Amino acid sequence: ARIQDTGLLRSEGLVAFLGVPLRAKDGVSGSLAFFTRWDYDFTDQERDFAATLAGQLAIAIEHTRLYEQIERQATELRDANKLKDDLLAVASHQLRNPVNILSRNTNMLIERTLGEISPIQENALQMMMRQCKELHAVITSMLQVNFIESNLVEPEFHETNFWEFLYELKSSYDSQLAKDIKLIWDFSPDLPLLEADRGKLNLILQHVIDNAIKFTEHGYVRVSARYLAGRKVMEFEVSDTGIGIAADDLPRIFEKFRRIDSSESEIYSGVGLGLYIVEKFVHVLDGIVDVESKVGQGSTVTIRIPARRQRLPFAEEQQASAIDPQSSGIEMA
Predict the structure, then answer these.
(1) How far apart are the first and last CA of the chain?
(2) Alpha carbon distance 96, 137 (integer Å)
(3) How far is 50 from 53, CA to CA, in rounded Å?
(4) How far apart are CA 287 and CA 305, in angstroms?
(5) Which helix (H) or strand (E) holds 10?
(6) Per-residue pLDDT tens for 18-39?
(7) Cβ-contact 172, 213 below 8 angstroms
């Protein structure tokens, strides 16, 4: 390196100088300089050391610059994602009301509340109602995703009668399916009372069941549940005879907006959020979800959620503690 203003150096009493440029990918970013106040001839070893030191310093500066660039881009990306999430939440809320109004008015027409309609008109209205339900499901899924990604999701455990819970879920599917498939429910009436997050479990199972129905044209969808006392978990299994999933696609089915290949995307509606929501809610409940599938032979989704019995009444707790000194007062089912 060369010094342009040697007068400044002389005024400071500097006599000898060794300068090495800091070379980076984008060119020279500066220089590393050594000065002495006496006549000195830098040795080759000192020059090599200065060159090595300058090279390492140039790399460190370049890494710092790249890190700052990455941090800046990450901040911009977070801001863009937050803006997207805010817009998504607002749009979803704004869409929900008109869709609900459209659904109610369409149902009034189908029920003949506003007068008689022809069979052709009824068919058209039934199609409108199905489209409203699908749009409502998409809006609800987007709101659930926004809630999940806002880090506001926490488990809320309450005493749950699982037979009653599953019976109510079954009742919500009692209306005749618009497909040639059979919906089979398999659960025992003696399922125990357990502490569980009823709301999130309901959303999890609805998404899985709806997905199974969507991708099954013939055969059945079976929903089963049992309590695994030895493992202290509730196990839910939803199996179907639908189109199945290719082995290469299985690792990616829980990704957000993941859909089947484009050749079938026009047949099966949806935006690919159902299983993403399922995986997130199962994680919140410290559970696991597993999927087995073969193309053309159907799929089986298994969900296991830890569950415990509620705390014993005080008198029973005292009696249990007297019998078993190691008892904690909570019976784990």
Answers:
(1) 78
(2) 10
(3) 5
(4) 4
(5) helix 6-11
(6) 888 888 777 777 888 888 888 8
(7) no
Question: For the segment 263-288, what is each residue's pLDDT rounded down to a tens digit?
Answer: 444 455 556 788 888 999 999 999 99
**What backbone torsions phi and psi does residue 325 show, to the nearest 5 degrees?**
-60, -25
Residue 164: what pLDDT?
94
Indicate the residue type of 122.
E
Distance between CA 298 and CA 215 in Å, rounded? 9
> Tokens 């890190």, residue?
67
Sort 282 into a burial class: Cβ within 10 Å, 0-12 / 13-18 / 19+.
buried
18 phi/psi in degrees, rounded to 5: -130, 120
Report the b/e string of 212-228 with b at 16+ CB within 10 A.
bbbbbeeeebbbbbebe
User: Dihedral of CA 301/307/309/311: which sign?
Assistant: negative
Cβ atoms 226, 235 nearer than 8 A? yes
Residue with tokens 């199609």: 127
> Which segments of 132-217 are extended strands (E)?
158-161, 180-186, 193-196
- Tokens 């790249």 found at: 66
User: What token pair was written down for 292?
Assistant: 């087995």
Amino acid symbol at 50: A
Q: Which two tokens stand for residue 124?
A: 């058209």
Token duo for residue 267: 């047949």
Which pair of tokens denotes residue 115? 């007068």
DSSP label at 251?
G
Beta carbons of 143 and 89 less than 8 angstroms apart: yes
